[in-house]
Specification:
10 strands, alpha/beta, 26% strand, globular, 34% helix
Length: 227
């Protein structure tokens, strides 16, 4: 089992005098290597919170999270940063790119965090841009790119460290139908190549492309219909 979450709870404190907010309420979830999963649910259901815990961007308030057999809940912040950089690639709805940097510079960011030499980082980032059909945009500032081009840069950045898992939070939410379909074809190809992919989405066609659909409601998994 690649990812195994048991009894995961997440409570957020609010301003003094206010009640705390429980975003996740005892979530149990197991993900095998190579699966492609959609997480669905209404706004406030806990989808992004769950994705952040899976990606070691946040810690649960309670519960166990084993990643490739190792409990990561009590790891130090520095160790969690290493795990994030080596294990996960992140793709966000609004791309989270540095607009004034080039596509190549953006794609290379995880390698530079990992202290890869600049020359090797550039070569590997360019390879990923080429794999996604946008090597010709390598020197363009991302501010000048279309939405679909920006998301492909974001996917190149997510892939550049050869992560085990791709985590995507509404990756087609800011795109038109044509670009959305293109991005989903990329995810399908990555899945066919053996990547584990977890996608938070509210879109029927995106969820329908996945093997399994997880539905969250009020911080709990309500249904797990087969894909």
């Amino acid at each position: 089992m690649l990812l195994e979450l048991t009894g995961i709870e997440k409570t957020f404190a609010v301003r003094r005098g206010g009640a705390s907010v429980k975003a996740l309420r005892g979530v149990d979830l197991a993900v095998d290597r190579g699966e492609m999963i959609a997480i669905r649910g209404s706004s406030g259901a806990g989808k992004s919170t769950l994705l952040h815990i899976i990606g070691c961007l946040d810690r649960p308030t309670k519960g166990s999270y084993r990643l490739d057999g190792k409990d990561v809940v009590q790891e130090s912040a520095a160790r969690l940063a290493q795990i994030r950089n080596r294990t996960f690639g992140f793709v966000m709805q609004h791309f989270a790119l540095v607009d004034e940097d080039s596509a190549l510079q953006n794609a290379a960011i995880p390698l530079l965090f990992a202290r890869t030499s600049p020359s090797l980082a550039k070569a590997r980032a360019l390879q990923q841009l080429d794999h996604l059909g946008i090597a010709h945009l390598a020197r363009r500032k991302t501010a000048t790119l279309s939405g679909g081009e920006k998301q492909r840069v974001a996917i190149a950045r997510a892939l550049v460290n050869h992560p085990d898992v791709i985590l995507a939070d509404e990756p087609t939410g800011a795109l038109d139908g044509e670009n959305s379909a293109m991005i989903m074809e990329i995810f399908k190809t990555l899945h066919a190549e053996g990547k584990t992919i977890i996608i938070v989405t509210h879109e029927e066609n995106v969820a329908g492309a996945c093997q399994r659909i997880i539905t969250l409601s009020d911080g709990q998994i309500r249904t797990e219909p087969p894909g």
